[in-house]
TrEMBL record:
Pathway: Protein modification; protein glycosylation. InterPro entries: ArnT-like_N, MIR_dom_sf, MIR_motif, PMT-like, PMT_4TMC. One of its GO terms (cellular component) is endoplasmic reticulum membrane. The chain crosses the membrane at residues 30-49, 83-101, 122-139, 145-162, 169-189, 201-234, 255-274, 567-587, 608-627, 639-657, 664-682. It catalyses: a di-trans,poly-cis-dolichyl beta-D-mannosyl phosphate + L-threonyl-[protein] = 3-O-(alpha-D-mannosyl)-L-threonyl-[protein] + a di-trans,poly-cis-dolichyl phosphate + H(+); a di-trans,poly-cis-dolichyl beta-D-mannosyl phosphate + L-seryl-[protein] = 3-O-(alpha-D-mannosyl)-L-seryl-[protein] + a di-trans,poly-cis-dolichyl phosphate + H(+). This is Dolichyl-phosphate-mannose--protein mannosyltransferase.
Length: 802
């Protein structure tokens, strides 16, 4: 892989300093040995005892449940794109997941129903393993030293929060995997910049585009890597534009190659994931209610053609336009507040309780057909309960605003109704293909308001749910000065036995892939933005860089899993971010004052790859400050990955002119502290045994809210078998699951050393594997340090990124 030397003038490889093939082969073999040892250690750390806990943990509730729905083929709605969920489902299907297991609660046992949860976790775990060597090669192929590359890999390897996320059926491990792959592909592409349009140049450019598409197909947070690569691309094109050696035609070739690979390819990959998603979920399911009627018709729902004109006497269903709440609905249950009359709600599914008969203002039905037009008055009689749609000067059950009034179903046998049953039809919009629908009320094609005659308010609904006594259906009110979008309705079905046989008929237009794709992404966006409720373990972005608190995932038998980062790595990476920003500000000020500091080539050396990783951190972190939705610590992990890469770049800057042995000592010191802190908090990562005193001693900040009182005073109070081996027989002891954690996210703690993670029967084998791998890494860098005795500057190329 080519890199850029720090003087910016010469291409060379990492290995250009070796004078003969034998030395080169030895050096390359050494590098492979270090990568191999780190990867083996990553396998141990990521996958050790991955079968524990043997019950549903944290958001496995959601993503395991989605796997069951994929296997059933039942449509569901989720705020995340489908790729990682489909990979989880594929793994479950291959290993025989019974789709009747629904993962619906934290703590549900996996063993008795024979859920293949270990392969499903392994899929995420192996992606977590792969991130470690990718971090190594991202730094190495950016032109940095073997020391810096090893440091980056080890810091990623022993990051507790990344390990925790990698061991469970969650989306963050695939997200970080594809993000890391994309960054590596881009670094490799940049390394080929002096050989444009070569095979390797195209391969890595295309691979970057694939990575962008895959990252965005896991979570929308993956779109931030698109912004990172996009900014770097613009910088490249700007540089090429100013290069007099590049002709306009050549520049256009550069532009088109990047446009195809970095725009067309990612969009195509993203859309392909949704095409597969739609093919797998072809049947009606729990997510239907989020989608429009045309979308639902692609899931097996059917809607008979209805006459175009709407007449008095017709039985109609009325759908709300402004939300996906569904149909105007009533049922034989009363409000527990206000008038205590019959409930009027929105209901998302087809039902006979959605049917209303249109009557004249006086409650009569004409003997001959009389079609409705804008400005006509109606009464709406509920077919099933014979109550009329009614409003009056009372507060609605949920909304306190003084402009809202209760809407109810009112009436009884022998009662002809009153003026509070009267509504005026006002057509506010219509399909352009049917001009008459702007004056005459047409099925599906006219959008209209229902204005209450007495109260001068509009029939209205919004995404506010009634309590359990209202079956958690959507509230309907009558609102003065209502937002038009939420006071707009359409007639969806229209039946009347007096319509002529030759009456023009209408139905929804058939929705193709593009229509479904756009609608689902719009619903995902609005639903995601609506996740604003608080959670016991949510947090704001300003607290993430300081690791003020974590997230409780699971607890049982005095053992817990709690997402918390390796505080040493976390603070070191935050310091690297601050240091880089301060350095760039200092250089900017000095440039403005007429000084041009080159620092013997170190400036370019630091700005290229350091700038790219700093930009990656900014794009993956700062946008969260603009989000009002519910956020958690794990949203910071992709940004943390870039911050760790910046730590290794800073390491090379600080140590660039040090002898190799000093660099080795510093590498071992930093890595040892990271490993020590990792082991200190390992019981929180693995859910293993811990004592109360060890737990208390581990709290660096008072804001870390895992409960140490859940642990025993001594390890002897645990059962004789370890957390890992006893877990296979769990099914008895009750899960420690706070009520607030059951729906969306977590529960309580864990910690320790590798020796604490397993029973005595398995301890030596696991520790030995980790020890051997660590020894190989140390031996490799020690040999490198003894190889030449030179300073690092002679070994390194410089950055391959901008």
């Amino acid at each position: 892989m080519r890199t850029l030397s720090h003087d910016g003038d010469h291409d060379h490889t990492h290995y250009a300093k070796f004078s003969n093939r034998r030395s080169l082969a030895w050096y390359q073999n050494l590098e492979l040995q270090i990568v191999g040892a780190i990867t083996v250690l990553a396998l141990v750390v990521r996958l050790w005892a991955i079968g524990y806990p043997t019950s549903v943990v944290f958001d496995e509730v959601h993503f395991g449940g989605f796997a069951s729905k994929y296997i059933k083929g039942r449509f569901f709605m989720d705020v995340h794109p489908p790729l990682a969920k489909m990979l989880i489902a594929l793994t479950g299907w291959i290993f025989g997941l019974d789709p009747s297991f629904d993962f619906k609660e934290i703590g549900m046992d996996y063993i008795e129903p024979k859920v293949p949860y270990i392969p499903m976790r392994l899929m995420c775990g192996l992606m977590g393993v792969a991130v470690v060597p990718m971090a190594f090669y991202t730094i190495r192929n950016s032109g940095h030293s073997l020391y810096a590359s090893t440091l980056a890999a080890l810091l990623v390897l022993f990051e507790n929060s990344i390990v925790t996320q990698s061991r469970l059926i969650l989306l963050d491990s695939p997200l970080i995997f594809f993000t890391a792959f994309t960054a590596l592909a881009w670094v490799n592409f940049y390394g080929e910049r002096h050989d444009p349009f070569s095979d390797d140049w195209y391969i890595w450019l295309f691979a970057t585009g694939i990575g962008l598409g895959l990252s965005g197909s896991v979570k929308w947070v993956g779109l931030f890597i698109i912004a990172t690569i996009g900014t770097s691309t613009l910088n490249q094109l700007w540089t090429l534009w100013g290069d007099l050696r590049i002709s306009p035609r050549m520049w256009m070739n550069h532009f088109l190659a990047r446009a195809v690979c970095l725009i067309v390819v990612p969009i195509s990959v993203y859309m392909l994931m949704f095409e597969i998603h739609f093919l797998l979920l072809g049947s009606s399911g729990e997510g239907d209610g989020f989608m429009s009627a045309p979308f639902q018709m692609t899931l097996g729902h059917s809607l008979k053609d209805s006459p175009l004109g709407v007449a008095y006497g017709a039985s109609v269903s009325i759908r709300h336009v402004g939300t996906q709440g569904g149909y105007l609905h009533s049922h034989a249950s009363n409000y527990e507040t206000g008038s205590k009359q019959q409930q009027i709600t929105l209901y998302p599914h087809k039902d006979t309780n959605n049917d209303w008969i249109l009557q004249r203002r006086d409650g009569s039905i004409p003997e001959t057909l009389e079609y409705l037009k804008s400005g006509d008055y109606v009464r709406l009689l509920h077919v099933a309960t014979h109550k009329r749609l009614h409003s009056h000067n009372l507060k609605p059950p949920m909304t306190e605003d003084e402009n809202h009034f209760e809407v109810s179903g009112y009436g009884f046998d022998g009662f002809e109704g009153d003026a509070n049953d009267e509504w005026r039809v006002e057509i506010v919009d219509h399909e352009a293909s049917d001009p008459e629908a702007g004056e005459k009320l047409h099925t599906l094609r006219s959008k209209f308001k229902l204005v209450h005659q007495q109260m001068n308010c509009d029939l209205f609904s919004h995404k506010v749910k009634l309590p359990k006594w209202g079956f958690e259906q959507q509230e309907v009110t009558c609102m003065r000065s209502a937002v038009l979008a939420k006071a707009t309705w359409i007639i969806e079905s229209n039946r009347y036995d007096q319509y002529p046989e030759d009456a023009p008929m209408v139905n929804y237009k058939k929705l193709g892939f593009l229509g479904k794709f756009l609608e689902l992404n719009k619903v995902m966006w609005t639903t995601n933005a609506g996740l604003t409720e608080s959670h016991p373990y949510d947090s704001r972005p300003s607290s993430w860089v300081w690791l003020r608190r974590g997230i409780s995932f699971w607890g049982k038998d005095q053992k817990h899993i709690y997402l918390i980062g390796n505080w040493f790595t976390w603070y070191l990476s935050s310091a690297a971010i601050v240091f880089y920003a301060a350095m760039r500000l200092l250089l900017f000020v000095r440039d403005k004052r007429g000084y041009r500091d080159d620092f013997n080539g170190l400036r370019e050396y630091y700005e290229l790859s350091g700038g790219f990783f700093f930009m990656g951190w900014c794009y993956h972190y700062l946008p969260f400050f603009l989000m009002g939705r519910q956020l958690f610590l794990h949203h910071y992990l992709p940004a943390l990955y870039f911050a760790i890469l910046l730590v290794s770049v800073t390491f090379d800057l600080v140590c660039r002119f040090m002898p190799n042995k000093f660099r080795l000592v510093l590498l071992l010191l930093v890595s040892s502290v990271a490993i020590y802190v990792f082991r200190m908090h390992a019981p929180l990562t693995y859910g293993s045994q811990w004592t109360r005193s060890q737990c208390e001693a581990s709290k660096v900040l008072r804001t870390w809210d895992y409960d140490c009182n859940q642990y025993p005073e001594t390890l002897s109070l645990y059962p004789t078998k370890s957390a890992v081996t006893s877990g296979s027989n769990s099914g008895s002891s009750a899960e420690v699951i706070p009520e607030q954690d059951k729906v969306v996210e977590p529960i309580e703690n864990g910690q320790g050393v590798f020796s604490d993670l397993v029973s005595d029967d398995h301890q030596d084998e696991g520790s030995k594997a980790a020890g051997v791998a660590q020894a190989q890494i140390i031996r490799g860098v020690e040999v490198l340090g003894e190889d030449t005795g030179r300073g690092g500057g002679e070994e390194d190329g410089t950055q391959a990124t901008d």
